Amino acid sequence: MLAVTISTGGLGNCVEVAGIPYVYADGVIGEFVLPASCPHRGGPLHLASVEPGTSRLICPWHGRATSVTRAVRHGIPAVRNQDRVTIVLPVEESASVRIGHRPVSEQLCRPRPEPTRSVSHD
């Protein structure tokens, strides 16, 4: 087993382990870690839209729906702490690891609240 910590968004939001990229998603259908590539044709699943009323991801390359359950397959354990998430992957600790960035579709990424500014009224 290999534990890797990545960002929940922006730079460093993707980890490629043994050639398979994974991203963290926190969007309209919940919080989870998923392979960034479609299992059917290798399309960019991290850019998927969500089928209305379901928890199915629509691949932007070929339009085929994939259930989130199938996409995360074995349930990749993850623990979030503020803007970081630690993922435990079922690979050897010696597996190659590369942290990078992949954009995530709006439906797989909750908008972060704007910082509030205090206004002084004199």
Question: Could you give the topology of this structure?
Answer:
Elements: E1 2-7, E2 14-17, E3 20-27, E4 30-35, E5 49-50, E6 56-58, E7 65-67, H1 68-71, E8 78-81, E9 84-89, E10 97-100
Question: What report would you give on this structure?
Answer:
With 122 residues, this protein is mostly beta strands. The protein has one domain (2-108): 3-layer Sandwich (Rieske Iron-sulfur Protein). The protein contains one helix and ten strands, in the order βββββββαβββ. The protein has one helix at 68-71; strands at 2-7, 14-17, 20-27, 30-35, 49-50, 56-58, 65-67, 78-81, 84-89, 97-100. A four-stranded antiparallel beta sheet has the order 4-3-2-10, with no helix packed on it. A three-stranded antiparallel beta sheet has the order 1-9-8, with no helix packed on it. It has a three-stranded antiparallel beta sheet with strand order 5-6-7. The longest helix is centred in the middle third of the chain and has 4 residues, at 68-71. The radius of gyration is 16 Å and the shape is globular. The mean pLDDT is 86.
Compact overview of the structure:
The protein is mainly β.
Features:
single chain, 122 residues, mainly beta, Rieske Iron-sulfur Protein, 4-stranded antiparallel beta sheet, 3-stranded antiparallel beta sheet, 1 helix, 3% helix
